[in-house]
Amino acid sequence: MRHINISFLNEQDKINFVNRCEAEFEERLCEVSNRVKNTGVESLLLSGPTCAGKTTTANKIISDFEKSGRPVTIVSFDNFFKERKEQRSVVGNDDIDYDSVNALDLDVLERCVNATRQGTSVDMPVYDFITQKTSHYERLDIPENGVIIFEGIQAVYPEITRLFKNRSYAGVFINVDEDVEVNGVVFERDDIRLSRRLVRDYKFRGADAEFTLFLWDKVRKNEDESIYPNKNDICKIQLNSFMDYELFLLKGYIIDILNEVEENSKYYKKANELKQKFLKLDSISYDYVPKNSLYTEFLGKK
């Protein structure tokens, strides 16, 4: 367990704390990026459980590859979700599991993966989480001598990795990999990711806390069954994405979100337990966070 004991005398203390945490995380990101570059691969499978920080890691790797003269293309598995009505036909009701491999259109994904290998242009779907269907297609040109990053929790699924069995690739896994005690308040690693997801889904995916909590048990079940058992075989490079200041930052958002869960809800107990933990913490303003921070994934660009 990671222990964080800190008090803030003024706002400058908070700014200094954020900057120190960001610098430490940047060092970890640089180490991962350098290891990836040294592999010399043509494809990168970038995975991790929900809200682990995959997008930020991908952007860092992209920047470093491009500085070394190798163009990078990124493909998100999230764009290959089936439309909601098609997912219903798989499970037979409204109880949809977005993290299941069955939620993906594997035929479309396989065609796109094969096209990237051939070095041709390909029309990639773009999925809209608000309407829960493909909104449009975007033309993706595959540059010569480039690197393609395939990003998403699904990157370690056996149904996905089989598409890369004859390709040169490396695997990177991102996660919050330890429980944390902050000024005497204990947050389990999964609750940290849940907190990130509650805020992200509320801000960007039109989901209230009730819906995110409804999905959470299925998300965790899928992680235990499909992600964690495969990660060490596929991903030899791993990164801890937790930053020491983030729970202080999340407090300013998550309290209001959790307050919307009513007492008669089956999720009220979990929401209230999490809320009580955050209420014991000080707050840090998003104004103190750098524009290129990991937290733009969960709170939006500044």
Brief summary of the model shown:
With 302 residues, the chain is α/β, with parallel strands linked by helices.
- Identify the strand order in the major beta sheet: 3-6-2-7-10
**Overall mean pLDDT:** 89
Portion of residues in helices?
40-55%
Please report the distance between the alpha carbons of the first and last residues: 32 Å
Number of strands: 10
Largest sheet: 5 strands, parallel
- 3D shape: globular
Q: Give the topology string: H per helix, E per strand.
A: EHEHEHHEEEHEEEHHEHHH
The number of helices is 10
Strand content: 15-25%
Radius of gyration: 20 Å
Identify low-pLDDT runs. Answer: 88-93
Structure explained in plain terms:
With 302 residues, this protein is an alpha/beta fold. It is built from 10 helices and 10 strands. It has a 5-stranded parallel β-sheet, with helices on one face. It has a 3-stranded mixed β-sheet with strand order 1-8-9. The longest helix is centred in the N-terminal third of the chain and has 29 residues, at 11-39.
